Predict the 3D structure of the following.
Amino acid sequence: MSELENNLYTKKDLRFKNGRFKIFCISDLHGIVNFDTRILRDLDAILDEVKPDLLLVLGDMVWYDALETPDNLRAFLKPVFDIVEKKNIPWAHVFGNHDNDCVGHTDFCQQDIYEEFDLNLTKRGPESIHGIGNFVLPIWSENSDDIVYNVWGVDSHDSLGDFIKEFKLGDPANKWDMQCVYPTCLHDWGGRYNTLNFDQLMWYWNSSVELEKYAGHKIPGMMVMHMPLPEYCIAYKNTAESYYEGTRRESVGCSPINSGMFNAILDRGDVKTIVAGHDHINDFTGSFLGIKMCCDAGLNYDGYCADDMRGGRVIEIEENDPWNIKTYMVRCADCVENYPGEEVRING
């Protein structure tokens, strides 16, 4: 299969309905084997409220013991995504930094398990580039074979230690070697996280050009990833000069190394919205150089979260004006009866 054929393929066609398409983004489920089942209650209620055409899960689906064996992974994923699939909602995911926490049970192995679900549309992406789950999902016109909108997924990798090892910059366990890559002047923003690789930028650029040629026009779209780009910091540090709304209760957990993806997006001119997870208690939206940069607050009870922020982000697209999307957060507090309630574990 050629790269174009792979980019055009999905298990299930995504199409506009009645001139509209609604995407719902959730992030940071942080599942464990003996998980708090309130997450099932919340997901069920919030999906009934939003009624999305596509669900996007923005990484850190699991951590700790859920990563130890394939059966442990399934023990969390099955009850969660059975809810999604019983509602006949197609879904896709990108991996987060904690999805890499277990040595030996890599994203390669995990991806096989995700693909067992009938409505999981995530594609592994080219084996020749870094990461698992670099993909594009085309959304087709309701009444024709024209691509109206593209959803791009990018693997934002793991820790800065992986970067240090790959490029032989020192020992990640040595604080002085780490300090050289993550200097003190950056400590008030960002974090010790990896950056996107140049081959991922090339893949996005080349795929975008090829899809434009195929469609006969530039295709508007959005890009999702787990860890935000460094440009997110510009939004909250320059609120007077750029559009900004929402809440920031923690530092933006981006890489201190700028990959250049934001510049590639600017040059291509097709992606106008970026949505990232990772920061559980940030849900702000900022705009810089015409690009919306959105945070998606966490949806979990087994990692840190905030009861008043727990929820997900909606993206509404109109077929007759796909360049101008509408986005907002939907809170569990507004959808769930007797929220948040008492802890209830899967195994008591």
User: Anything to note?
Assistant: The chain is about 25% helix and 20% strand.
